[in-house]
């Protein structure tokens, strides 16, 4: 299956001379001078789409791209500055190949294994339902990513509070393109990728620009409170997921839904099940018990056999595709930018 491979040798990490450039993929400008590269052999099969897909905020996300050659491009702000990372699976080899540009290049390459799920332990998961077991068999390359970065997942999660994903994706896209910086390396030109703004830039965004992006004052104010304590929030990436969530939830406007959505990505949290979601309880209830009206309490009861791995169980349930027929109307779209 495209995007997957099964290694036949023990785990090892290889840095070819530490800074050896690899050829740019087909169709990408060759302005890759100053790049660094790394190759890594994982302990099991990988599916880049399943692993890195949760980092993408909609099809027009300026921080995330996929290319026809199977590469995943990611533009982000690291503790060492902006960086662009390209990750691909080497054809015919049990190896992941990465190339990075910008001040954050070495930081990104150093954490490549964690990004691709090296700290995840899918073998500890024991399916308790037939649907979950079937989904796990069909997705052997699913591993939980760990970015080690909090704000890049927290801010878009705040934007997704109480609105449609379409509205949230639009806001993220507009704000990052207008106030972020072009991604280092070829991605900033060929793919028009951008790195999200730094905390000081988020704080300087005028109120009318939030309005034009369709972000109400409540969500904008929550983001502003978060970026004022950016350093303390980024420390949460090294904490246990529950402690990390507790730190985030000290900020008014950040609750269990937002903190769970964040630590699933920043901390690779296998048990951080999302509560307070409009659709997830009904999907889990319908898939495991035929109950399309399940609430959070019922969902947590159904997921109790997966304690310690409830987020992974929910991911596998979603991949199983057994969702209840739509009965409730979609959340109405309300664009404050038109007022």
Automatic annotation (TrEMBL):
<protein>
    <submittedName>
        <fullName>DNA-3-methyladenine glycosylase family protein</fullName>
    </submittedName>
</protein>
<dbReference type="InterPro" id="IPR011257">
    <property type="entry name" value="DNA_glycosylase"/>
</dbReference>
<feature type="compositionally biased region" description="Low complexity">
    <location>
        <begin position="46"/>
        <end position="62"/>
    </location>
</feature>
<feature type="region of interest" description="Disordered">
    <location>
        <begin position="1"/>
        <end position="79"/>
    </location>
</feature>
<feature type="compositionally biased region" description="Polar residues">
    <location>
        <begin position="28"/>
        <end position="38"/>
    </location>
</feature>
<dbReference type="InterPro" id="IPR051912">
    <property type="entry name" value="Alkylbase_DNA_Glycosylase/TA"/>
</dbReference>
<keyword id="KW-0227">DNA damage</keyword>
<keyword id="KW-0234">DNA repair</keyword>
């Amino acid at each position: 299956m495209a995007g997957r491979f099964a290694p036949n040798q023990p785990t090892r990490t290889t840095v070819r001379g530490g800074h050896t450039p690899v050829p740019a993929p087909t169709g990408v400008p060759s302005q890759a001078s100053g790049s660094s590269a790394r190759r890594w052999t994982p302990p099991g099969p990988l599916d880049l789409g399943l692993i890195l897909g949760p980092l993408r905020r909609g099809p027009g996300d300026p921080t995330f791209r996929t290319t026809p050659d199977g590469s995943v491009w990611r533009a982000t702000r690291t503790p060492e500055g902006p960086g662009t990372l390209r990750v691909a699976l080497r054809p015919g080899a049990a190896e992941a190949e990465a190339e990075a540009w910008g001040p954050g290049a070495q930081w990104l390459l150093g954490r490549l294994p964690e990004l691709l799920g090296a700290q995840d332990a899918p073998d500890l998961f024991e399916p308790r339902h037939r649907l979950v077991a079937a989904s796990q068999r069909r997705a052997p390359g699913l591993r939980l990513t760990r970015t080690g970065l909090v704000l890049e997942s927290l801010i878009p999660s705040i934007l997704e509070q109480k609105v449609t994903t379409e509205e949230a994706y639009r806001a993220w896209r507009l704000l990052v393109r207008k106030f972020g910086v072009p991604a280092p390396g070829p991605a900033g030109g060929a793919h028009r990728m951008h790195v999200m703004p730094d905390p000081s830039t988020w704080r300087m965004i005028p109120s009318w620009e939030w309005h034009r992006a369709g972000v109400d004052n409540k969500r904008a104010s929550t983001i502003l409170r978060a970026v004022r304590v950016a350093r303390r929030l980024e420390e949460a990436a090294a904490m246990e997921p529950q402690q990390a969530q507790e730190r985030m939830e000290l900020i008014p406007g950040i609750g269990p839904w937002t903190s769970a959505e964040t630590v699933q990505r920043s901390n690779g949290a296998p048990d951080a099940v999302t509560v307070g979601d409009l659709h997830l309880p009904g999907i889990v209830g319908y898939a495991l018990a035929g109950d399309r009206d399940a609430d959070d309490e019922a969902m947590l009861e159904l997921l109790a056999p997966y304690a310690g791995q409830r987020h992974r169980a929910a991911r596998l349930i979603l991949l199983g595709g057994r969702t209840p027929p739509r009965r409730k109307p979609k959340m109405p779209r309300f664009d404050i930018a038109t007022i």
